[in-house]
Structure formats: structure tokens, C-alpha cells
Amino acid sequence: MYQGLVLTAVSVAMLAMPALAQQSRISEDRDRFQMSVNGASVSITRSGVACPPACLQPMQAGPGVSTIGELEMLDFLELFVAGGSGLLVDIRLPEGFGAGTIPGAVNVPAATLRPGNPYRDDLLNALGVRSGDFSSAFDLVIFGSGADDPEAAEAVRSLLDAGYPASKLKYYRGGLNAWVALGLSTALSR
């Protein structure tokens, strides 16, 4: 009898879980997606972190900026980061970066790239920009926590607005969440 009560309690809890999940928007302008397929209604909704701010981001963060996946990320690490001509930029806050990141990443919080930051020119200088000349600037891959992190796409747009060439920028939309979900190694920052 005890086992039956436990199974009943677990079943009730499992059925209640969707009701407990927080309903969220898919994007700022869409709360659900609905269509009809072969006469059957299909509805896609999203639960979890509130949107905004955590809305799904488009695949392209800015005009001319390539969006890359994990294999391209590994190539970038090998060809650019290890070669000293590129940086893998984690735009999350230092607390998140300190808890774990993609190996080889440096932390440049998105807020530091915004036009209002009085030290942005110093930061661009550290990225290889000399008096508005971007020819020696590092190639960058920008990433955040995941596909619903608006800060990563915003950081790309801030760099473009500062004059950073799109050809020197790449966007890893999947971010740390996709990296971890695929079982790839992470590193603790020092």
C-alpha cells in the first residue's frame, strides 16, 4: 500500500509540473506560435526564464557577422586564439565567467562595450584598435550564456557601432549552455 501511495504522489507531481513551469514569451513580439498541419492545430509555447530579457535571439547578431557552431569554434580556437590573432570573448558578468567558461575565453562584460562606457576606447585599444584603425584588431568570437542571452547579440552590435569590422567578428549564438549541453569541456577562470 505504501508503494502505491508513493507512486500516486509521484504521478500527481509529474502531472502538475507543467502547471508549475513559468510561461514565457518566445521573443519580445511573439508569445506563441500556432499553425495548422493536415487539419491539426499545432501550438508552440515556451516556459522558463522570463522574456524579456531572456528572449530567443536571431541567428544573425549583426549585418555581415557570421554565426558559428561548435566545430567552427574549435577551428577558431586552434587557428586564431592559439595563434595569437584572435580572442574568444565571454560577455557574461565576472561571477558567471568565474563559475565556468569555454576554455581559452577572456571575460569582457557586455556593458563595457556599450557606447556610454567612458573606458570603451581603452578597451578597443586592448583589442588591437589603434586610433580608429582596425587593421591590427583581434578577430573575435562573442558568446554569452545561450540562445536566449540578449547581451551577446548586443555586444556584437556595440562593436559594429564602434567601427569594428564585421569580417573580424563572429557570434556563437549557442553560448555556454549549448557548449555544456553537448558535453564539451569547460574551464574555471583564474
Automatic annotation (TrEMBL):
SMART domains: RHOD (SM00450)
Residue ranges of domain Rhodanese in the record: 82-188
Signal peptide coordinates: 1-21
Keywords associated with the record: Signal
Keyword presence, Signal: yes
PROSITE patterns: RHODANESE_3
This protein's record includes keyword Signal: yes
InterPro entries hit by this protein: Rhodanese-like_dom, Rhodanese-like_dom_sf
Name of the protein: Rhodanese-like domain protein
